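Notes from hallway chat w/ T.B., transcribed later so I don't forget. T.B. wanted the structure written out for a chain they're using in a teaching module, and asked if we could keep both sequence and structure tokens in one place. Agreed to drop them here.
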Amino acid sequence: MAKLSQDELLAQFEEMTLIELSDFVKKFEEKFDVEAAAPAAAVVAAPGGPVAAEAEPEQDEFDVVLTGAGDKKIQVIKVVRELTSLGLKEAKELVDGTPKPVLEKVAKDAADKAKESLEGAGASVEVK
């Protein structure tokens, strides 16, 4: 049997149906004890160090942290009670013990609304 060049092999593969090509790949894997799998995403090496091939996933859970009560402490306590299911005593303790998280693992829009409400009452707030 004459040896075929790579171009000749490709020309033969072009004439095959997908089913025939799939069968060929299975037989090739069995014959040579290999696996024809797509290569995994590689890490690109840069002069300054490795760079990840995939971007970090976007954050979808946020914590609203009260960092200060400000001058209107009573108003802040009222807003904390509205945002949470805390009673008066627990809300006061939360406000007195800043920095403390008011809401944890909430959606972006809920975190923004809570921040806006607390800042409107005179508190200082961080969203993490």
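Follow-up for T.B.: DSSP finds five helices and five strands in the chain. Might be a good example for the class.
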